[in-house]
Design brief:
Elements lengths: L1 H25 L15 E3 L1 H13 L3 H12 L7 H19 L10 E11 L6 H9 L3 E6 L5 H15 L17 E14 L10 E6 L5 E9 L3 E5 L3 E7 L9 E8 L5 H10 L3 H4 L5 E2 L1 E7 L1 E8 L1 H6 L23 E14 L3 E14 L8 E4 L4 E7 L4 E8 L7
Parallel strand pairs: 2-3, 11-15
Antiparallel strand pairs: 1-17, 2-4, 4-14, 5-6, 6-11, 7-8, 7-10, 8-9, 9-16, 12-13, 13-14, 16-17
């Protein structure tokens, strides 16, 4: 039992590392992101991408599987690949059945979490893959006609995503993204709606100055509170934890706001998180402390991107190449298949009552602790990072940054 718990903690640590590497890549103000990330607010779900890619790993073999395991599950030189794969699928099982179980009936967050496999009707999934997908990933399987009804399949996938995300993510796949060469689509979608344990008083929300990265500023609505808060102060960084109401189990979901002291400190903070994955755990506030005042802007973000280039930049190249080994998906031999596209979109809204967030990932495959001062203020009036995680396991659901709370989704 202890060994299984230790293995799960290690798998979650790898998931967190994957999340923070992706966040740093997305949050780097490079010309490769469009629009540049210093001009747009960002949110994405590393959990959604991690689970979709884990499902891809379940259907992969050889060097392709090893590369996916290295990116997702920490497969090192000399490590047995099967053990790493088993750990990856055990994490997906825990996430699908426990971490992301709906808690709304007992007063906790409302959660939807689902996976789906859309396979061309001319092909038959391998029983071992189908058993894994349905059993551990709670995936639905759909037989579809990519050959003759590609447009209808796009509509079917989009409707499935829209339903799971309670209408927050519509038209994820553009028309034309699926064609006659498509053989398989893997999809993950999730929805989260949590109320703060201690809601902000809307009558105290006031406009204030938010400083931008370019030196300018805007007037934005700030929520405020003078109640004791879970907060840590580390010289050049402050971390605020805002817990969501719990349901009838031990899970505790929280939002963390990581506020660099420097008004332009967002990028160096993102890089520190990427290079030191344990940085997050070391800076989680454990105790409530008296605060003078906290001010946090309300914000709403919708952000989507095609993830292939980003993942290749993190060393995940094999699944996209002509050498891709995706032989564990189908019973019968098929022509060379590779990943043609990975589409991801997320939404988050933060207000006085709590948070509503959703995400979807679709993979398309085609042929061919320091001492606290007595009171501390937390004034999030310049760009900051945020994340939503489940604290008892450490699973990270969403990561993002706010450069301007007024930017409309």
């Amino acid at each position: 039992m202890a060994a299984a718990a230790a293995a799960m903690r290690l798998s979650i640590a790898h998931q967190t590392r994957f999340a923070l590497c992706l966040a740093a890549a997305l949050s780097s103000p490079s010309p490769s992101t469009s629009p540049p990330s210093d001009k747009t607010n960002i949110v994405f779900s590393p959990l959604s991408l991690h689970v979709a890619l884990s499902l891809l790993a379940a259907g992969s073999g050889g060097a392709t599987r090893d590369q996916l395991l290295a990116a997702l599950g920490g497969l090192g030189d000399g490590d047995p690949a099967q053990a790493a794969a088993d750990s990856l699928h055990a994490l997906a099982d825990q996430v699908a059945h426990l971490v992301m179980a709906d808690g709304s009936e007992a007063g906790g967050p409302r959660i939807e979490f689902a996976d789906a496999v859309f396979v061309d009707k001319s092909l038959k999934l391998k029983p071992a893959f189908e058993e894994m997908a349905v059993g551990k990933y709670k995936a639905e399987t759909h037989s579809v006609d990519f050959q003759n009804q590609a447009a209808q399949v796009v509509g079917q996938v989009n409707s499935w995503v829209e339903k799971v995300t309670s209408g927050l993510i519509k038209e994820l796949l553009p028309q034309g993204s699926v064609n006659q060469a498509t053989m398989l689509v893997l999809a993950n979608a999730l929805y989260f709606k949590g109320a703060w344990t201690k809601k902000f008083d809307a009558s105290k929300t006031r406009d204030g100055v938010f400083h931008l990265l370019d030196g300018g500023s805007v007037q934005a609505p700030f929520m405020s509170s003078t109640d004791d808060q879970y907060m840590s102060s580390y010289g050049n960084l402050k971390v605020l934890k805002l817990p969501y109401q719990q349901g009838g189990d031990k899970r505790q979901f929280s939002m963390y706001i990581l506020l660099p002291e420097a008004q332009d400190g967002l990028w160096s903070l993102a890089e520190k998180l990427r290079s030191e994955p344990e940085f997050l755990d070391k800076h989680i506030p454990m105790d409530k402390i008296p605060v003078g005042q906290i001010k946090v802007p309300k914000f709403k973000i919708s952000y989507g991107f095609e993830a292939s280039k980003l993942l290749k930049g993190l060393g995940l190249e094999q699944p996209f190449s002509s050498e891709a080994d995706l032989s564990e998906f189908f019973d019968s031999p098929v022509q060379q298949m590779s990943v043609s596209s990975i589409v991801h979109k997320s939404f988050v809204e933060v207000n006085e009552g709590g948070t509503e967030a959703a995400a979807a990932s679709v993979i398309l495959m085609c042929g061919s602790a320091l001492g606290h001062t007595v009171t501390t203020n937390f004034i999030a009036d310049h760009p900051f990072l945020f994340l939503i995680r489940e604290d008892t396991t450490g699973v990270v659901l969403f990561v993002g940054h706010v450069v301007n709370p007024l930017l409309a989704p």
